[in-house]
Amino acid sequence: MGAAPRFMAAKARPLPVLVLADVSGSMGEPREKIDVLNECIRHMLDDFATADVGRGAIHVGVIAFSQNRAELHQDMVPAAEASWTDMEARGGTPLGAALELADEVLRDESAVPARSFSPTLVLVSDGLPTDEWEEALDRLLDSPRGSRANRLAVAIGPDMTEQAKAVLRRFVSDEANGVFEAHDVGRIQQYFRWVTVTVTQQARSTRPDRAPVLRPDDLSDFGA
Question: Which segments show compositional bias classed as Basic and acidic residues (predicted)?
């Protein structure tokens, strides 16, 4: 039997991306909001699957929350293994349930291995939570992975109240990013293109744990 190779190629470290998607009934009014969100996530998965990311490996999961529960709509898997099914809008906005499930996913080493880079969490919502959410958010922010995560938030639609935006501001990890306000569906598309490009660049970087910062002028590079 021949000698084992002296050097072996390093296995790519996972860079987890977890989307928390509000699919409450108001996301279907107008229908265009949920349709565009589905399209954006589908394109993001396709782009991550085909991206040349060097030493990183982008893994993606999607939590959908509506009615009175949250579910892992897309398991956390390498992007190339994801198989997207469109989400449907219905019921309430159980953000607390979504945050609890996100915490469970991040703590599960079969989903997010210990050697993973710091995760990126993207919370998308168009209204106020309809369940108790503050304790669930505190647990997520106090957890080892949740506290280090790059946490982004998107407020969808022109009717988001300041109270609803304040909830999203509690979630974000960097005041420089704040809460991105997508008053029309074109802005949702721009934002997800920005997330796709910056996460891909992050995976290629020599410092993948450095979180990207969104500047207002950045989105002009990503069309309407």
Answer: 206-218
